Structure to design on (247 residues):
């Protein structure tokens, strides 16, 4: 196959090597007058061919595409400026432990206890399994309506857990697992307060392997039990419980 492309010029016909064709197309501007006259030449050639009974060999010049005018949208510009501003700021994300502990404090807001608002979240593989807060049993009157029985009897915190209308947050989170058929074995429990000895026993038998707590509840008997049951325990204080919003 011939490696030269035959391409007619406006004035004469000569051979242009394939390697030079691209340069010729880019660097050799065509005269404006001849370019303007080309449609007329094409029309004349087609007319002659038609009279001679030959098909038209020269196609009409393609029309120029319409000129597109870009109009700047001020809303897009404002959005981009805002995005650039956010990207320049230092965004601090909470760790996974901080994230779930914050959720435990949010759950605690549902508490009906007049002494302590306690919330618990049970997690496995960074997935929330159940939640629980301290409050009266389902279907019965709570302390918000009846008042605190322990205050009436002047029972100090951390003692006589059986004298209380509420079910503890950890207990409710474990109960929710059984109620909904959710396996919580090998999970981590995040709780706003450290557990009482009753909750600690339930945590051990539920197969929970890690406990992260915030405030220290006045009952430290759980520490010895966790040590024997080989349950990992560590406190975590959240300095800032506010939610950072980027709108």
């Amino acid at each position: 196959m011939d490696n030269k492309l035959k391409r007619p010029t406006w004035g004469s016909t000569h051979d242009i090597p394939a390697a030079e064709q691209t340069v010729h197309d880019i660097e050799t501007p065509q005269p404006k007058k001849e370019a303007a006259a080309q449609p007329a030449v094409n029309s004349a050639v087609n007319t002659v061919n038609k009279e001679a009974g030959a098909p038209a060999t020269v196609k009409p010049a393609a029309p120029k595409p319409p000129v597109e005018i870009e109009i700047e949208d001020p809303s897009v510009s404002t959005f981009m400026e805002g995005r650039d501003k956010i990207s320049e700021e230092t965004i601090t994300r909470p760790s996974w432990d901080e994230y779930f502990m914050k959720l435990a404090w949010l759950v605690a807001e549902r508490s009906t206890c007049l002494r302590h608002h306690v919330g618990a979240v049970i997690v496995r593989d960074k997935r929330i399994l159940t939640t629980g807060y301290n409050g009266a049993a389902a279907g019965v009157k709570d302390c918000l309506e009846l008042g605190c029985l322990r205050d009436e009897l002047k029972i100090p915190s951390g003692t006589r857990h059986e004298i209380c209308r509420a079910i503890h947050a950890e207990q409710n989170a474990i109960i929710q697992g059984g109620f909904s058929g959710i396996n919580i074995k090998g999970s981590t429990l995040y709780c706003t307060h450290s557990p009482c000895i009753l909750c600690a026993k339930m945590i051990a038998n539920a197969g929970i392997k890690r406990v992260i707590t915030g405030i220290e509840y006045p009952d430290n008997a759980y520490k010895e039990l966790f040590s024997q049951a080989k349950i990992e325990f560590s406190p975590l204080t959240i300095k800032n419980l506010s939610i950072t919003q980027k709108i």
